[in-house]
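SEVERITY: medium
COMPONENT: batch folding queue
REPORTER: lab tech (J.R.)

DESCRIPTION
The queue accepted two submissions in a row. Attaching both inputs and their returned structure tokens so the on-call engineer can compare them side by side.

ATTACHMENT 1
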Amino acid sequence: MSTRSLTVLALVLGVAFAAAPASATLSRAMDLPELVAESDTIALVRAVAQAPRRDARGRIVTDITLEVLDSLKGAARPGESLTLVRLGGSLGEVGMHIEGEPSFVEGSRYVVFLRPWDGAFRPVGMSQGVMPVAEGERGVEVQPGGGGLSLVDGPRGRPAPGALLGPMPLEHLLAEIRGLVRR
């Protein structure tokens, strides 16, 4: 192959890879003790409402109203509402999607690991800090968080597992979190 042919081939491949959509965001994997340690608030919640808006920087964000069902760490109390802000959403004909940001279904329950952010909360570790709760094979189970993320072990960049390797009974996870909070 001539130098010119190689240059054209490299240019075509470069454009093809640059135009390919991203399918995941790279993030450091966090185990359960890390999620607990880095969270100011941990709670079992129900998603009540979602409201997209533009933030002070002009980005589309979505405010998620969460009803606290059980408080595991922090000042939130059952019956109170919290606002979680996630990056992305849709305003009219304009939408913004960030891989690795959590998604919510109104009426569904979640175990959330939160830290304060601009008068509201953000999930610790992006979607790692939002674990869906649903009926499963063994009753009420918590599903692993981390959707849309490629989890790695930090400086070495090798694939790594998240806090949960698979579904876990809700009561087992809540007991484990309470034990970690007491330490």
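ATTACHMENT 2
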Amino acid sequence: MPIAVPAGVDVKLDGRQITVKGPQGTMSRELPADIGVEIRDTEILVTRPSDGRIHRAMHGLTRTLIANMVEGVTKGFSKSLDIVGTGYRAIKQGSNLVLHVGYSHPVEIVPAEGITIDVPAPNKIIVKGFDKELVGQTAANIRAVRKPEPYHGKGIRYTGERVALKAGKAGKMGKGGGK
């Protein structure tokens, strides 16, 4: 399946290195040795030498990576996170993100180059960028600061993520009482 190249996007192939340049930025990636990439007028065609398992897997991976590069430099990607918990909040200081999530100190996160972090509300974080892999990794690093815990559900979670809550110690005592 060919990858459509929209107007305003410049794609260059230099040996095994592909470079995609667009309004959002420039991305470059090394291509696998066996997979063929051909640039036509307004599309990119990815081919494989055989129908072997490795070639099929590398063909799909390469095609998806190039498609994500093209989409990233035109539209960009974003991931949204929610903060749940009393007193938990996020603040943006310059380009950095400062999290107050129940530790004795605030946690400061410095975004990588090409990543912007927005805080539209104290309990909402939006990570944006043109590199899908970097956006996902940055969002995962923010979530790892305070993962949602299973008893009260407090922590940082992806928007729409469902956290399965556990019952806790309610049924442990039995009928007899205190001893």
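NOTES FROM REPORTER
The domain at 77-158 is CATH 3.90.930.12 (Outer Surface Protein A; domain 3).
No errors were logged for either attachment.
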